[in-house]
């Protein structure tokens, strides 16, 4: 039940509702929906449609992805590893700022990384509105060659904007923040999953591959951390299983050729699905794997387990926490061990264990933790303003 005089919260993500393949976009929409139970919430996005969304005019990343990589433009943009995101930040800055100045909020909650943070910092300077920020990258950063490294480069950059409260996915990243900036206020809150949308019961679709089907949901980019090639190699060691890769990206032809070479055209496919189709895709598969070297969180693990699928993934602290008893973790760089883990996952009924592991991250519970942090941040900001006024 919404209170009579709710605080007003402004979330920002220009691609939310436009791009459904990104975890930050999905999280922004889910948070907006669930926080609306407690506050007056508005999501600033290029997409319109839901009653809580306010459309801002900009060029979201998905609309310019191919254009900025055109041979005539690419040479001028090569210094940007993700020029489409830079363009989104630049074109959304002033429309978002104008909305926050003409329709003030009690808290600004950007989700589109440094572009949203920079805009929120400008709004805070003008209106004294506190900033809550969720660090989606974790300790990931990019090296000079554009490759992803676990070095905290992106996080250090974002810390320079001094958000009033910083949300992190795990304790390791929180410890890193405290070594870099001891005064930064932080909370650790995991990602969430919609247990009503992702469920073992419901419609399935024909994936046109022999069963059992192993699913890998990832963007297809050789420079990211997903390591889809390891999944292809491991499934090729199994006699009967098929591999369906759900995703797209600049290196799709490379992965298509590798998959067809190692698995053949009958046991391998790359396909793209809308977000609305994904629950049925999960239900139509038998297991999920994502052998990434590092994941800030990994929403696909929760979606798969909520759908009753076992997960096979990299053995590290974060995935031990997420997967729990809902799958098997292993050294995915040992292809034989990886293949054996996939075989074991396919041999049993994991539905109950997987669903119970996912239930720990229900959005109802996660949203209440965000509610408490938002109230704390607003109250501390108001207290600080009063103390300054009294001096």
TrEMBL record:
Judged by the first EC level, this protein's enzyme class is: transferase
Q: Which UniProt keywords apply?
A: Glycosyltransferase, Transferase
One molecular function GO term is:
glycosyltransferase activity
This enzyme's EC code(s): 2.4.-.-
Domain (Glycosyltransferase subfamily 4-like N-terminal) spans 22-197
Q: Which residues form the Glycosyl transferase family domain?
A: 204-349
Membrane-spanning parts: none
Family to which this protein belongs: Belongs to the glycosyltransferase group 1 family. Glycosyltransferase 4 subfamily.
**What is the name listed in the Swiss-Prot or TrEMBL entry for this protein?**
Glycosyltransferase
What organism is recorded for this protein? Cyanomargarita calcarea GSE-NOS-MK-12-04C
């Amino acid at each position: 039940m919404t209170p009579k005089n709710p605080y007003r919260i402004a979330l920002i993500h220009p691609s939310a509702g436009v791009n459904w393949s990104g975890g930050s976009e999905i999280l922004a929409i889910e948070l907006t929906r669930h926080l609306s139970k407690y506050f007056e919430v508005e999501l600033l996005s290029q997409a319109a449609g839901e009653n809580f969304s306010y459309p801002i005019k900009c060029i979201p990343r998905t609309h310019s992805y191919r254009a900025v990589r055109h041979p005539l433009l690419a040479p001028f943009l090569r210094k940007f590893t993700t020029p489409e995101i830079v363009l989104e930040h630049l074109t959304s800055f002033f429309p978002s700022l104008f909305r926050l100045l003409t329709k003030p909020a009690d808290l600004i909650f950007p989700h589109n990384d440094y572009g949203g943070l920079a805009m929120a910092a400008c709004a805070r300077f003008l209106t004294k509105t506190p900033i809550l920020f969720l660090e989606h990258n974790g300790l990931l950063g990019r090296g000079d060659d554009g490759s992803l490294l676990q070095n905290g480069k992106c996080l250090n950059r974002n810390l320079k904007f001094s958000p009033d409260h910083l949300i992190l996915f795990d304790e390791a990243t929180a410890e890193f923040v405290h070594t870099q900036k001891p005064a930064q206020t932080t909370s650790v809150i995991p990602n969430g999953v919609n247990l009503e949308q992702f469920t073992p019961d419901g419609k399935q679709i024909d994936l046109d591959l022999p069963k059992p089907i192993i699913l890998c949901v990832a963007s297809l980019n050789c420079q990211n951390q997903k390591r889809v090639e390891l999944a292809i190699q491991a499934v090729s060691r199994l006699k009967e299983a098929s591999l369906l890769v759900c995703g797209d990206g600049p290196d799709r032809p490379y992965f298509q050729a590798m998959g067809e070479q190692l698995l053949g055209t009958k046991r391998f496919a790359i396909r793209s699905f809308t977000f609305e189709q994904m629950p049925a895709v999960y239900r139509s598969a038998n297991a999920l794997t994502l052998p990434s070297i590092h994941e800030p969180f990994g929403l696909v693990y929760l979606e798969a387990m909520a759908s009753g699928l076992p997960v096979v993934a990299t053995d590290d602290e974060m995935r031990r926490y997420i997967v729990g008893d809902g799958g098997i973790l292993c050294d995915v760089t040992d292809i034989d061990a990886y293949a054996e883990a996939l075989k074991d996952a396919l041999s049993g009924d994991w539905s109950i264990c997987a669903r119970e592991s996912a239930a720990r991250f229900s959005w109802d519970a996660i949203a209440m933790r965000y509610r408490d942090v938002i109230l704390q941040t607003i109250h501390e900001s108001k207290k600080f303003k009063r103390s300054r006024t009294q001096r």
